[in-house]
Amino acid sequence: MQATTAPAFRVGVLGASGYSGRELCALIAGHPQLTLAFATANTQRGTTLRVRAGLAVHDIPLIAPEEADLAGVDLVFAALPHGASAEWVARALAAGTRVVDLSSDLRPGHGGAAHALPAGVPLDAPYGLPELFRAPVRGARVVANPGCYATSILVALAPLARAGLIAPGGTVSIASASGVSGAGASPKLELLFAEVAEDFRAYGVGNSHRHLHEMRAALGTLGADCDLLFTPHLLPATRGILSTITVPLTRPVDDALAPFRAAYADEPFVELTTQLPALAEVQHRNVVRIGAVVPTGMRSPTLLVFSAIDNLVKGAAGQAVQNANLMLGLSETAGLPQ
Amino acid sequence: MQATTAPAFRVGVLGASGYSGRELCALIAGHPQLTLAFATANTQRGTTLRVRAGLAVHDIPLIAPEEADLAGVDLVFAALPHGASAEWVARALAAGTRVVDLSSDLRPGHGGAAHALPAGVPLDAPYGLPELFRAPVRGARVVANPGCYATSILVALAPLARAGLIAPGGTVSIASASGVSGAGASPKLELLFAEVAEDFRAYGVGNSHRHLHEMRAALGTLGADCDLLFTPHLLPATRGILSTITVPLTRPVDDALAPFRAAYADEPFVELTTQLPALAEVQHRNVVRIGAVVPTGMRSPTLLVFSAIDNLVKGAAGQAVQNANLMLGLSETAGLPQ
Amino acid sequence: MQATTAPAFRVGVLGASGYSGRELCALIAGHPQLTLAFATANTQRGTTLRVRAGLAVHDIPLIAPEEADLAGVDLVFAALPHGASAEWVARALAAGTRVVDLSSDLRPGHGGAAHALPAGVPLDAPYGLPELFRAPVRGARVVANPGCYATSILVALAPLARAGLIAPGGTVSIASASGVSGAGASPKLELLFAEVAEDFRAYGVGNSHRHLHEMRAALGTLGADCDLLFTPHLLPATRGILSTITVPLTRPVDDALAPFRAAYADEPFVELTTQLPALAEVQHRNVVRIGAVVPTGMRSPTLLVFSAIDNLVKGAAGQAVQNANLMLGLSETAGLPQ
Amino acid sequence: MQATTAPAFRVGVLGASGYSGRELCALIAGHPQLTLAFATANTQRGTTLRVRAGLAVHDIPLIAPEEADLAGVDLVFAALPHGASAEWVARALAAGTRVVDLSSDLRPGHGGAAHALPAGVPLDAPYGLPELFRAPVRGARVVANPGCYATSILVALAPLARAGLIAPGGTVSIASASGVSGAGASPKLELLFAEVAEDFRAYGVGNSHRHLHEMRAALGTLGADCDLLFTPHLLPATRGILSTITVPLTRPVDDALAPFRAAYADEPFVELTTQLPALAEVQHRNVVRIGAVVPTGMRSPTLLVFSAIDNLVKGAAGQAVQNANLMLGLSETAGLPQ
User: Fold this and answer.
1) How far apart are CA D169 and CA C170, in angstroms?
2) Where in the sequence of chain A do the CATH 3.30.360.10 domains occur?
């Protein structure tokens, strides 16, 4: 450990009172080479946010966004609501500061939003899913952090797509379930404990969910020519996403995990299991945990893939730090729980 | 209401301490034409089971199975563990008593178990899913009560199968999630609160779940020639099953619910919704609640179907009472929460 | 059952979209002698509320409060927020209609609010806790429905107070825990699933909770001269209140339940147990379930009393119907789940 | 940080498959000066336990207790069931190895058990609650780790006892609520998710709980002459204990927190708050978080004290490591989450 020689960077968090923002503050507090210069919040400005990092706790003052010294930091994490983020991305870039944007504003496929991007925000910000598209993230000035569902699904499908295993024109059917923190920390009736406990339901179905755009764009890049049918569900749990994915194959596979082993042998944040991945195994970790099974009794070659992530870590804040590490030239794994 | 002319029957429950057995006792206590003559339990024999029915509570003594007067009742509900049930079905039939068997022992497709059925237990007991196969249940002496997952899925698929809408050779992909009461009331580490809360995981995957046999058998009868890929999951909730089903179609449908409306117009226990069915809407009710969506952006005609039931009611005890009503010549809806 | 001779009354519900209001609509739908003429809601006006009653479900249209025909019903249940209710109570009384007010506006001890009561609202509306103060409720034109905590605690303390068992000047220490539905259905950050699950905390401590006023007033009436120390807590559960109460006694008791047996022998909605009452035993029932223990190793005579209710039934809607039954001359138990 | 000069010790865990044992393994894995030499389990022997520590995960093989090399380690943590532990404590001591015993077998006040202690196990093992009794723990060969409830309560009461603030002969009334992990990881019907969710109940009431003995013994040592009335409850949550304590005082206090500030100014693991402590604030941390309120409207001087801990950390494994640190001459805070 040669802490004295490691470069240190100052970073800020816009939107620190949401669940992703809180998680970002915790990760930064525990990061050996990042220092949190400011954290902003709207309604909770003036209060203090307590986060745990390693064995310590940190009390972080929340300031108003307008008070944030965007030019005084090396990188800003924008954990703002969709639609409200691009404006702040523009401000940070204008101040000469790097940005990881956790909203959907800059993600590929958001055509409508993209046309309305403020001046200075590139239409083609790199899509920050390092396991699939690492090169453009290194040294980038602005990165679009992927959606939580998209992360869980793309990491599961990419090895199959790249190996030409997904049947062209076939339907990849995806049932995902997410803990309620994925819906954010804004008070809504349908997110109350008394509404969520003992319930389970789908939402955003029929391919109407926002994350579908980026999944299609990314899969196209990877060479897959399939249809996606994506159905998210709301779990009576706080954090985690499990995606259960049916993939029609071009040819049978004997070893269900083989394509994943080949693709992810050197990836520190992808974990393969011969069992079935569960939320409890990935919570608070920056990993995608993948299992796969060749189902019996099928006439067409088919693979059943399971992918579990913590929606707030690998699905949001952890991945954002992973991207920041790459943008700043740090070790990709620095400060991330594995 | 002509209560004085309605016939009344005496019934018994074998296995009343499990979750299905408790629910059966509650439904019988509130049934206008059934009287509970006995309820048995093994380890809890000698204790009292309290159930609510309508506005009243009932305290039911639990006796040992050996003390049950099988010949003294008109019908026995066997809510015993799989494998242990057939033996008691044989005893009840030998005593001249009708039986609804809630285990999988007598269900179609259980070839291995069927060959080992005790003398007197028919190999072809009617499969008690009245919405699909009502005629053979009327007046039957023994009925195999369907599995909870099978109920939720078959009621969702049958109208499509009968209308020739399911693409032959296609893969019907089913992701189901069940509350933990579906796993029974026997103490297992993986069912402890501290293990289930905040977790979500699949189990019995790759087409290894017991209910697949009866689903395949029933769908064959209904004329479908598709492959099923069935993946159950364990929910951090107590009761309810939601099945999310992707169906490849032979032709496009404009109105996603049309096939269901045609099939279930007169069914008292099938409920269609233009919204998405949720567990909270079906708990404590003997209904299958179905929603359907035609997803956008698909090259092949595809339907997304949702089916919600209470696993302990329409998935077990409620359906058993529905079958008993038909077997005994009562109104099919008598005593059932709609 | 002589349904033809029973009088029937038309009632309305103001504030039907809250948790108490929904429960009221369900109870009225299942009540043999009440008909729901209207149900109002503010933000949810124009939508439909689905409730279950017995074996049936009912879909109830929600209208704006201004559309409610207050004069066209026999009784109005006001399930409106504290502070907003008295105004509507005045309107209903002016229209010649009876009122059960579920808010705290008319309860005893609410001195400040009382002085501000609109013209026509009596300062001394009977306190509708029939087990303790039944006579004034019979035939009353307006009744103040007790708070949920107050109900659970007063029913537990009254027999001891009336028997002169509570040590004068002593401290009765009360730790109560309530499910989150007690906090209402308005969206607040601290009631989100992700905030409530896995947490437990006190609130309104140091004798600052609203219900303390009515408890002190009622206990004074019952002859107790003790200090109350009341500490409510928020449970990660949806419904139910358990109060754990330490009572300093004037003299030792041998049989912990004896005072309660004597007081409540004929009460249909009080249930005594030699075990410890639990939330699961009272949910969806209009009962107070009481257990008591004489602790060992105490130098001063002390009783430990437990009291469990469903905060939405006996703590709100059920008790309101119980009061309405008395006001309208119906059987006190009509339509109430026991 | 001078890692090179810090002594390192080898330790073992007996009973690593329980909730406390798992937590111990995680803490040891993250401890800078402890190395886990073995971890034992009975039914799960031969499997692997995965724990997270800091940013890393560790997979720990579980061996049979008989295979453990007790003599080859510097200290053994015994996380075995009450009654089964003393035997293994004796073996470890005979092998010349230090022991922290997490069971109740060696705790003060366990008179019956004490008489049956195996040869070599001292009748007066230091009670390892360092905030109250630090000196005897330093360098001790065997330490009795306190119960989880006792920890939460004694740390809250000790400053009042030592300051002579607790009224002699008065009743200290304690209502505690614990997450279900406190009941251990053995499969019992009453700990199933379907039984615990949506329920809340007391147990072990009337001063019958095991932890009462050690609380009385410790309070006596601290000079308090009060009666304890301790009532534990089972929470529908996984981890954490909140104790709500009513204390009759000898004299009024103006500043509710003053006695705690004076006593715990230098304690790294005691946290005072002017708000009300909540489970969510202490989970996964080795702290006791204390709040206090002077209630209004009381004739006798009274203090209301709240104490929150994580039952598995400060209530078990964390405190055990804290004791081990003292026994081995390490920094008391080494490896502990604050």
Assistant:
1) 13
2) 149-311
